[in-house]
Write a structure and sequence with these properties.
Number of helices: 5
CATH superfamily of the domain at 4-117: Gcn5-related N-acetyltransferase (GNAT)
Radius of gyration: 15 Å
CATH topology of the domain at 4-117: Aminopeptidase
Structural class: alpha+beta
Largest sheet: 7 strands, mixed
CATH architecture of the domain at 4-117: 3-Layer(aba) Sandwich
Distance between the termini: 34 Å
Strand content: 25-35%
Order of helices and strands: EHHEEHEHEHEE
Length: about 160
């Protein structure tokens, strides 16, 4: 990965983010181009990683107080006055296990510290299980603060937070 850069999202990246989201849709909610554009307009931080001029990963976050109907975001909104919510982290299948997720999460932690977010919130699928994500988040210090059933009863998520201050 000699030609790798992390940068902020640009409008020209929209189609590629849709492709990456669709590739990982079994862990994420599906998005149309309009849905994604709407989320981007509300997002706090959206970083992408380019490898050899192709976006291979992205992270999208939200701060509290946004008009966002995600049941997991709303759960954190009910429990926390201030937070940075990681809505989705996506790494292309060909770039899995190459450290891109860690690079993205480091950018989230840096941003949270720069903007004085007291904590970072995220959810991880536990039914069906996503053990790689659970282990990944544990390594960053996330702790479970709740669980909820989502997707019309098809999934259970672990709601997790890492406190920064």
């Amino acid at each position: 990965m000699e030609n790798m850069i992390i940068r902020r999202f640009e409008t020209k990246d929209l189609e590629r983010l849709l492709e990456l989201n669709e590739e990982s849709v079994h862990f994420l909610s599906p998005l149309t181009k309009e849905n994604l554009a709407n989320l981007i307009s509300k997002s706090e931080m959206l970083n992408v990683i380019e490898v050899d001029n192709t976006i291979e990963a992205f992270v999208m976050t939200f701060r509290e107080g946004k008009e966002y109907d995600s049941v997991n975001y709303l759960w954190f909104s009910d429990k926390y006055d201030s937070f940075l919510y990681v809505d989705r982290v996506v790494v292309s299948s060909k770039m899995q296990e190459k450290g891109l997720g860690k690079i993205l999460y480091n950018s989230v932690f840096d941003y949270a510290k720069q903007t004085n977010a007291p904590c970072i919130a995220a959810e991880i699928d536990v039914n069906p299980p996503n053990p790689r994500s659970l282990s990944f988040h544990k390594n960053f210090g996330f702790k479970e603060v709740g669980k909820q059933t989502v997707g019309g009863g098809k999934k259970v998520v672990s709601l997790q937070v890492v406190t920064l201050v």
